[in-house]
Design goal:
- Keywords: Nucleotidyltransferase, Transferase.
- Its EC number is 2.7.7.65.
- GO terms for molecular function: diguanylate cyclase activity.
- It is a single chain.
- It contains nine helices and five strands, in the order αααααβααββαβαβ.
- The protein is α+β, with helices and mostly antiparallel strands.
- It has two domains: 126 residues, Aspartate receptor, ligand-binding domain (Four Helix Bundle (Hemerythrin (Met), subunit A)); 147 residues, Alpha-Beta Plaits, CATH 3.30.70.
- Helix 9 links the parallel strand 4 and strand 5.
- The protein starts with 5 loop residues before the first helix and ends with a strand.
- The relative contact order is 0.10.
- The structure holds guanosine-5'-triphosphate.
- The site of guanosine-5'-triphosphate has 15 residues, from strand 1, helix 6 and helix 7.
Length: 291
Protein backbone atom coordinates (compact mmCIF):
# COMPACT_ATOMS: atom_id res chain seq x y z
CA UNK A 1 0.00 0.00 0.00
CA UNK A 2 2.95 2.30 0.63
CA UNK A 3 3.57 2.63 -3.07
CA UNK A 4 0.08 4.04 -3.69
CA UNK A 5 -0.55 7.76 -3.83
CA UNK A 6 -3.06 9.28 -1.41
CA UNK A 7 -5.42 9.73 -4.35
CA UNK A 8 -5.21 6.02 -5.21
CA UNK A 9 -5.76 5.07 -1.56
CA UNK A 10 -8.80 7.38 -1.31
CA UNK A 11 -10.19 5.75 -4.46
CA UNK A 12 -9.93 2.28 -2.92
CA UNK A 13 -11.60 3.53 0.29
CA UNK A 14 -14.48 4.90 -1.79
CA UNK A 15 -14.79 1.62 -3.65
CA UNK A 16 -14.81 -0.30 -0.38
CA UNK A 17 -17.63 1.93 0.86
CA UNK A 18 -19.53 1.25 -2.37
CA UNK A 19 -18.83 -2.47 -2.10
CA UNK A 20 -20.13 -2.48 1.47
CA UNK A 21 -23.29 -0.61 0.52
CA UNK A 22 -24.00 -2.91 -2.45
CA UNK A 23 -23.41 -5.89 -0.19
CA UNK A 24 -25.99 -4.48 2.26
CA UNK A 25 -28.43 -4.07 -0.64
CA UNK A 26 -27.81 -7.70 -1.66
CA UNK A 27 -28.48 -8.81 1.92
CA UNK A 28 -31.76 -6.85 2.00
CA UNK A 29 -32.93 -8.60 -1.20
CA UNK A 30 -31.92 -11.95 0.22
CA UNK A 31 -34.02 -11.33 3.34
CA UNK A 32 -37.02 -10.68 1.07
CA UNK A 33 -36.37 -13.99 -0.68
CA UNK A 34 -36.10 -15.88 2.60
CA UNK A 35 -38.95 -14.18 4.49
CA UNK A 36 -41.43 -13.17 1.79
CA UNK A 37 -40.47 -15.87 -0.69
CA UNK A 38 -39.84 -13.46 -3.57
CA UNK A 39 -37.91 -14.85 -6.56
CA UNK A 40 -34.16 -15.15 -5.88
CA UNK A 41 -31.51 -13.67 -8.18
CA UNK A 42 -30.60 -16.55 -10.55
CA UNK A 43 -26.89 -15.77 -10.02
CA UNK A 44 -27.29 -16.38 -6.24
CA UNK A 45 -28.01 -20.04 -7.02
CA UNK A 46 -24.84 -20.54 -9.05
CA UNK A 47 -21.83 -22.32 -7.57
CA UNK A 48 -19.73 -19.22 -8.22
CA UNK A 49 -22.35 -16.78 -6.92
CA UNK A 50 -19.59 -14.87 -5.11
CA UNK A 51 -18.18 -13.78 -8.47
CA UNK A 52 -21.47 -12.36 -9.76
CA UNK A 53 -22.57 -9.88 -7.07
CA UNK A 54 -21.29 -6.28 -7.19
CA UNK A 55 -18.86 -6.98 -4.36
CA UNK A 56 -17.45 -10.02 -6.19
CA UNK A 57 -17.04 -7.95 -9.36
CA UNK A 58 -15.08 -5.35 -7.42
CA UNK A 59 -13.04 -7.99 -5.60
CA UNK A 60 -11.91 -9.63 -8.83
CA UNK A 61 -11.42 -6.43 -10.85
CA UNK A 62 -7.86 -6.03 -12.19
CA UNK A 63 -7.20 -2.69 -10.50
CA UNK A 64 -7.38 -4.19 -6.99
CA UNK A 65 -5.11 -7.09 -7.85
CA UNK A 66 -2.26 -5.27 -6.11
CA UNK A 67 -4.04 -6.34 -2.90
CA UNK A 68 -3.81 -10.01 -3.78
CA UNK A 69 -1.16 -10.67 -1.13
CA UNK A 70 -2.78 -8.56 1.59
CA UNK A 71 -3.86 -11.04 4.34
CA UNK A 72 -7.02 -9.08 5.15
CA UNK A 73 -8.04 -8.88 1.50
CA UNK A 74 -7.48 -12.64 1.11
CA UNK A 75 -9.51 -13.49 4.18
CA UNK A 76 -12.27 -11.08 3.10
CA UNK A 77 -12.50 -12.96 -0.21
CA UNK A 78 -12.80 -16.28 1.62
CA UNK A 79 -15.46 -14.91 4.00
CA UNK A 80 -17.43 -13.56 1.05
CA UNK A 81 -17.30 -16.87 -0.82
CA UNK A 82 -18.36 -18.79 2.30
CA UNK A 83 -21.24 -16.39 2.90
CA UNK A 84 -22.57 -16.93 -0.64
CA UNK A 85 -22.27 -20.71 -0.23
CA UNK A 86 -24.35 -20.53 2.94
CA UNK A 87 -26.86 -18.12 1.37
CA UNK A 88 -27.25 -20.51 -1.59
CA UNK A 89 -28.11 -23.33 0.79
CA UNK A 90 -30.76 -21.18 2.51
CA UNK A 91 -32.32 -20.12 -0.82
CA UNK A 92 -32.31 -23.74 -1.93
CA UNK A 93 -34.25 -24.82 1.16
CA UNK A 94 -36.87 -22.11 0.66
CA UNK A 95 -37.20 -23.02 -3.05
CA UNK A 96 -37.72 -26.66 -2.00
CA UNK A 97 -40.47 -25.58 0.42
CA UNK A 98 -38.36 -26.46 3.47
CA UNK A 99 -37.97 -24.34 6.62
CA UNK A 100 -34.67 -22.67 7.42
CA UNK A 101 -32.98 -24.45 10.28
CA UNK A 102 -31.23 -22.59 13.11
CA UNK A 103 -28.10 -24.66 12.45
CA UNK A 104 -28.06 -23.28 8.87
CA UNK A 105 -29.08 -19.74 9.71
CA UNK A 106 -26.56 -19.09 12.49
CA UNK A 107 -23.41 -19.82 10.45
CA UNK A 108 -24.81 -17.70 7.59
CA UNK A 109 -25.55 -14.83 9.94
CA UNK A 110 -22.08 -15.23 11.41
CA UNK A 111 -20.46 -14.99 7.98
CA UNK A 112 -22.42 -11.80 7.24
CA UNK A 113 -21.02 -10.22 10.42
CA UNK A 114 -17.48 -11.46 9.65
CA UNK A 115 -17.61 -9.97 6.20
CA UNK A 116 -18.71 -6.57 7.46
CA UNK A 117 -15.95 -6.60 10.09
CA UNK A 118 -13.30 -7.49 7.50
CA UNK A 119 -14.43 -4.81 5.06
CA UNK A 120 -14.28 -2.29 7.89
CA UNK A 121 -10.82 -3.48 8.97
CA UNK A 122 -9.50 -3.22 5.41
CA UNK A 123 -10.99 0.26 5.12
CA UNK A 124 -9.24 1.26 8.36
CA UNK A 125 -5.95 -0.16 7.06
CA UNK A 126 -6.23 2.10 4.01
CA UNK A 127 -7.37 5.11 6.03
CA UNK A 128 -4.34 4.68 8.31
CA UNK A 129 -2.00 4.87 5.30
CA UNK A 130 -3.28 8.37 4.51
CA UNK A 131 -3.40 9.44 8.17
CA UNK A 132 0.22 8.44 8.62
CA UNK A 133 1.38 10.61 5.74
CA UNK A 134 2.34 14.23 5.54
CA UNK A 135 -0.46 15.69 3.35
CA UNK A 136 1.88 17.82 1.22
CA UNK A 137 4.66 15.43 0.25
CA UNK A 138 2.98 12.09 1.13
CA UNK A 139 6.15 11.09 2.98
CA UNK A 140 5.37 9.29 6.25
CA UNK A 141 4.90 11.47 9.30
CA UNK A 142 7.42 12.02 12.05
CA UNK A 143 5.05 10.25 14.44
CA UNK A 144 5.43 7.06 12.37
CA UNK A 145 9.19 7.50 12.19
CA UNK A 146 9.87 6.66 15.81
CA UNK A 147 7.46 3.71 15.90
CA UNK A 148 8.82 2.19 12.71
CA UNK A 149 12.48 2.84 13.51
CA UNK A 150 11.98 1.17 16.90
CA UNK A 151 10.63 -1.88 15.04
CA UNK A 152 13.75 -1.85 12.83
CA UNK A 153 15.94 -1.40 15.91
CA UNK A 154 14.39 -4.53 17.45
CA UNK A 155 15.46 -6.51 14.35
CA UNK A 156 18.94 -5.01 14.54
CA UNK A 157 19.16 -5.98 18.22
CA UNK A 158 18.19 -9.56 17.41
CA UNK A 159 20.97 -9.61 14.83
CA UNK A 160 18.44 -10.09 12.03
CA UNK A 161 19.50 -7.18 9.84
CA UNK A 162 21.41 -3.98 9.29
CA UNK A 163 19.50 -0.77 8.86
CA UNK A 164 20.81 2.47 7.40
CA UNK A 165 19.15 5.82 8.01
CA UNK A 166 19.87 9.05 6.18
CA UNK A 167 18.92 12.59 7.11
CA UNK A 168 18.21 14.71 4.02
CA UNK A 169 18.03 18.49 4.27
CA UNK A 170 17.43 20.82 1.32
CA UNK A 171 20.11 23.46 0.95
CA UNK A 172 19.22 27.15 1.31
CA UNK A 173 15.59 26.24 0.96
CA UNK A 174 14.54 29.53 2.54
CA UNK A 175 15.91 31.30 -0.54
CA UNK A 176 13.52 29.33 -2.79
CA UNK A 177 10.57 30.50 -0.71
CA UNK A 178 11.90 34.07 -0.60
CA UNK A 179 12.66 34.26 -4.32
CA UNK A 180 9.81 32.27 -5.88
CA UNK A 181 7.16 32.16 -3.16
CA UNK A 182 5.90 29.54 -0.72
CA UNK A 183 3.87 27.69 -3.39
CA UNK A 184 7.08 27.18 -5.40
CA UNK A 185 8.76 25.92 -2.22
CA UNK A 186 5.94 23.40 -1.84
CA UNK A 187 6.46 22.22 -5.44
CA UNK A 188 10.14 21.67 -4.65
CA UNK A 189 9.32 19.62 -1.54
CA UNK A 190 6.82 17.42 -3.41
CA UNK A 191 9.16 16.92 -6.35
CA UNK A 192 12.12 16.14 -4.09
CA UNK A 193 10.21 13.42 -2.24
CA UNK A 194 9.19 11.94 -5.61
CA UNK A 195 12.85 11.89 -6.65
CA UNK A 196 13.89 10.25 -3.38
CA UNK A 197 11.10 7.67 -3.59
CA UNK A 198 12.05 6.78 -7.15
CA UNK A 199 15.41 5.54 -5.84
CA UNK A 200 14.02 3.52 -2.94
CA UNK A 201 13.16 -0.17 -2.87
CA UNK A 202 9.67 -1.36 -1.91
CA UNK A 203 10.64 -1.85 1.74
CA UNK A 204 12.59 1.39 2.17
CA UNK A 205 10.76 4.26 3.84
CA UNK A 206 10.82 8.04 3.71
CA UNK A 207 9.60 10.29 6.52
CA UNK A 208 9.13 14.05 6.76
CA UNK A 209 11.17 14.96 9.80
CA UNK A 210 10.68 18.72 9.69
CA UNK A 211 9.96 21.49 7.15
CA UNK A 212 12.60 20.62 4.50
CA UNK A 213 14.16 17.72 6.37
CA UNK A 214 13.48 14.08 5.58
CA UNK A 215 14.70 10.76 6.94
CA UNK A 216 15.18 7.74 4.77
CA UNK A 217 15.20 4.28 6.32
CA UNK A 218 16.86 1.49 4.34
CA UNK A 219 16.59 -1.92 6.01
CA UNK A 220 18.81 -4.87 5.02
CA UNK A 221 21.42 -2.55 3.56
CA UNK A 222 25.05 -1.97 4.36
CA UNK A 223 26.43 1.57 4.53
CA UNK A 224 28.46 0.90 1.36
CA UNK A 225 25.40 -0.23 -0.61
CA UNK A 226 23.23 2.59 0.63
CA UNK A 227 25.88 5.18 -0.05
CA UNK A 228 25.70 4.48 -3.80
CA UNK A 229 21.93 4.89 -3.78
CA UNK A 230 22.11 8.06 -1.70
CA UNK A 231 24.72 9.49 -4.04
CA UNK A 232 22.32 8.86 -6.94
CA UNK A 233 19.58 10.63 -4.98
CA UNK A 234 21.83 13.62 -4.41
CA UNK A 235 22.57 13.87 -8.15
CA UNK A 236 18.86 13.45 -9.05
CA UNK A 237 17.80 16.23 -6.66
CA UNK A 238 20.39 18.62 -8.10
CA UNK A 239 19.24 17.80 -11.66
CA UNK A 240 15.61 18.83 -11.08
CA UNK A 241 14.06 21.52 -13.30
CA UNK A 242 11.04 23.53 -12.30
CA UNK A 243 8.46 25.37 -14.37
CA UNK A 244 8.31 28.28 -11.94
CA UNK A 245 11.91 29.45 -12.56
CA UNK A 246 15.57 28.56 -12.72
CA UNK A 247 15.87 27.39 -9.13
CA UNK A 248 18.87 25.20 -8.45
CA UNK A 249 17.88 22.83 -5.67
CA UNK A 250 20.40 20.67 -3.84
CA UNK A 251 20.37 18.65 -0.62
CA UNK A 252 22.83 17.62 2.04
CA UNK A 253 22.79 14.05 3.38
CA UNK A 254 23.95 12.57 6.70
CA UNK A 255 24.15 8.79 6.85
CA UNK A 256 24.08 6.69 9.99
CA UNK A 257 23.08 3.14 11.01
CA UNK A 258 20.78 1.78 13.69
CA UNK A 259 22.96 0.07 16.29
CA UNK A 260 22.07 -2.30 19.10
CA UNK A 261 24.36 -0.27 21.38
CA UNK A 262 22.41 3.00 21.12
CA UNK A 263 18.87 4.26 21.01
CA UNK A 264 16.99 5.18 17.84
CA UNK A 265 17.09 8.84 18.91
CA UNK A 266 20.89 8.64 19.25
CA UNK A 267 21.20 7.16 15.75
CA UNK A 268 18.99 9.96 14.37
CA UNK A 269 21.18 12.48 16.18
CA UNK A 270 24.29 10.95 14.56
CA UNK A 271 22.68 11.19 11.11
CA UNK A 272 21.83 14.81 11.91
CA UNK A 273 25.41 15.59 12.93
CA UNK A 274 26.73 14.00 9.72
CA UNK A 275 24.23 16.08 7.72
CA UNK A 276 25.46 19.26 9.43
CA UNK A 277 29.02 18.30 8.49
CA UNK A 278 27.81 18.04 4.88
CA UNK A 279 26.34 21.56 5.23
CA UNK A 280 29.50 23.07 6.68
CA UNK A 281 31.67 21.29 4.09
CA UNK A 282 29.86 23.13 1.31
CA UNK A 283 26.41 21.42 1.01
CA UNK A 284 25.16 19.20 -1.86
CA UNK A 285 27.13 16.27 -0.47
CA UNK A 286 26.86 13.04 1.52
CA UNK A 287 28.63 12.59 4.87
CA UNK A 288 28.82 9.44 6.97
CA UNK A 289 28.49 9.13 10.73
CA UNK A 290 31.99 8.06 11.84
CA UNK A 291 30.76 6.24 14.96
N1 LIG B 1 7.28 26.16 1.01
C1 LIG B 1 7.46 25.59 2.18
N2 LIG B 1 8.46 25.98 2.98
C2 LIG B 1 8.63 25.38 4.16
C3 LIG B 1 7.80 24.32 4.60
N3 LIG B 1 8.24 23.92 5.82
C4 LIG B 1 9.31 24.69 6.13
N4 LIG B 1 9.57 25.57 5.13
C5 LIG B 1 10.60 26.60 5.03
O1 LIG B 1 11.88 25.99 4.98
C6 LIG B 1 12.83 26.99 5.30
C7 LIG B 1 13.97 26.36 6.06
O2 LIG B 1 14.94 27.35 6.22
P1 LIG B 1 16.27 27.16 7.07
O3 LIG B 1 15.99 26.29 8.24
O4 LIG B 1 16.80 28.54 7.30
O5 LIG B 1 17.20 26.33 6.16
P2 LIG B 1 17.76 26.56 4.70
O6 LIG B 1 17.36 27.88 4.11
O7 LIG B 1 17.39 25.36 3.89
O8 LIG B 1 19.30 26.60 4.92
P3 LIG B 1 20.32 25.39 5.17
O9 LIG B 1 19.52 24.24 5.74
O10 LIG B 1 21.31 25.92 6.15
O11 LIG B 1 20.91 25.05 3.87
C8 LIG B 1 12.10 28.07 6.09
O12 LIG B 1 12.05 29.24 5.31
C9 LIG B 1 10.70 27.50 6.26
O13 LIG B 1 9.71 28.48 6.20
C10 LIG B 1 6.73 23.93 3.74
O14 LIG B 1 5.94 23.01 4.04
N5 LIG B 1 6.61 24.57 2.56
Amino acid sequence: MDSLSNQQVQKVILELDQALSSHEQWYKNLQRVLISHTAPEPSDLKNDAHLHCDFGQWYTSPHVQFLQENPLFISLGKAHEKMHRRARHLIQRISDGLPILVRDWDPFDDSIVKMRVKIQALREEFAAVVQNRDPLTEAKTRARLLTELCEQQALVQRGKQLCVIAMVDLDHFKRINDEYGHAAGDIVLVSTVKQLKSHLRAYDRIYRYGGEEFIICMPSTSVEQSREVIERMRVAIAAQHFDFGKAHVTASFGVSVLRASRTVEESIHCADKAMYRAKTAGRNRVELDPE
